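REQUEST FORM: STRUCTURE PREDICTION
Request ID: SP-0412
Submitted by: Lab K.M.
Chain count: 1
Length (residues): 590
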Amino acid sequence: MKLIKHITLLLVILSTSVLTAQVKFEAKVSKQTLGVNERLRIDFEMNQDGDNFNPPDFSNFTVVGGPNQSVSNSWINGVRTYKKTYSYFLAPKKRGTFTINQASITIDDEVYKTVPIKVEVTAAVDIPKDPNNPDYIASESVHLVAEISKENPYLNEAITVVYKLYVSPTVSVVNWNEIDTPRFNDFWSQNIDTQGQKVQNGTYKGENYRFLVLRKTVLYPQKTGELTIEPLTLDIALRVPTNRRDIFGGMLMTRTNRTVSAGNRTINVKALPEAGKPSDFTGAVGDFSFDVTASKKELSASESLQLKVAVRGSGNLKLFKLPKVSLPSSLEVYEPEYNEDVRTNLSGMQGSISDSYTVVPQYKGKYPIPSISFSYFDLKTKSYKRLSSEEIVIDVLEGPTNNASANTEGPASTVKQAVTLNNDQFAFIKTDTTFESMKRTQFFKTNLFWSLLLLPFLAIPIAIVIRKQKAVRDADVYGNKIRKADKLARKYLSHAKKSLGKKEEFYIALEKALHNYLKAKLHIETSELSKENITELLTEKQVEQDVVKDFNSILESCELARYTPIDIVTMQEDYDKAAKTISLIDKQAR
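STATUS: Completed
RESULT:
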């Protein structure tokens, strides 16, 4: 009888140990019904360590956090308890009833799978104002704000957008990533470097907060009317306090995710006044100075001087053209060299731009360079201003005399000369003719006959020479690459060339050609054609920085040209620059 009791006890102990050692792998969700604006937490728990964990695809959700891994290992009354958990935070994409499929893991060479879970997503719900609810705490403790310096600027007046992330002292930020980045359509934009920014103390709606400046951007509006500034959106992982405390009395924290957005902002861009607008106004807005200088005023013929036309100050320096100079015909003038020394900070563009002309006099004499004027809109006085240079006289001391204009006061002589008639002017008309008879000759044994007979034999060495030249050309890899690049540039820019003279159509075609070339060359989509991405990809392909800079400047010209007056000469310059840049990229890209 005692033997039977001992055997029964032994079986109970063995069965208990077997049950204790049984592998468990299951999925648990924080809730099975949630609003489309709520978050779902799902935990995959196991009581033994495993390998090759494969989560489900979460096709109807966006993973906003995770996987977070935690392990607990405890001993209670001599019994070891082990638990390992993989946690995910999910945001539903739409309403409906969805199934979270199986996850799998390998434990002791056996594959275990969880049971599928159904989750119902309803319409948006009010987030409970429960001070102990992590989502509510996160919504009240983190704010993303876009601070705009001016909401009703003039066309081409600089404004700044500063994005600040305010965080309550009661929570801590683990990390964040950008979900949506503003593209600033209808603006010329430039980001200001914010690296090295430190957390600062401040107030938000009268309460103490810490804040960090995430992004600073300078904008110049290129259209009038209401323009929308797209929002910056972040997904932030936070640690928020709970109502539980540890054994030492310290408050326990829990992790949650929060999506914050600065929201759309609208600014009303005012047009520049028409009253008093100068006829030569090219869109300059700001506060400028203007001067025209010559490197020398006395020289000899065939020597050169530099004539510099410069604008300095603060304003939209990169967005307007300098006035052209008009010189006497006896001075040979070359195309100007454009120089730009502009820096951009929160106040906008500051610095100088200039055109430097190389001038070579041909004859002895004094040549006046007339006054040149420059017009701009002054934001301080809200009126147009005109600046004029002084007349410059170039004195050519030595050189040949221009006899054609020596006795005339104007730039070109208007002296008329009498026409002298030649008595033999009709001598070329023949009145007598001589006819000769033509004898019929046979084609056989004529020079033409022998030429055609020998032609095939002469063609053989010519064909051999041509074939050798073709082989040499095929072996010239670098030369072929150059020819291919030039052909590719002509191919993409052919439509733009046909549209020369039609500003809107030309720059649309030029921009499309540049985009199509990049998509074909870099294998990217239209959505990836940002300035930063283009610069990064071309740099990776070892394209020189000057070429990358030229390419980006052409794209900027395409954007700005639609809102500024452009002549056909400038359009031709932009076309030639685009063809040259495409050719250089194709030759340099690895």
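NOTES: The two ends are 89 Å apart (CA to CA).
Reviewed by: T.R.
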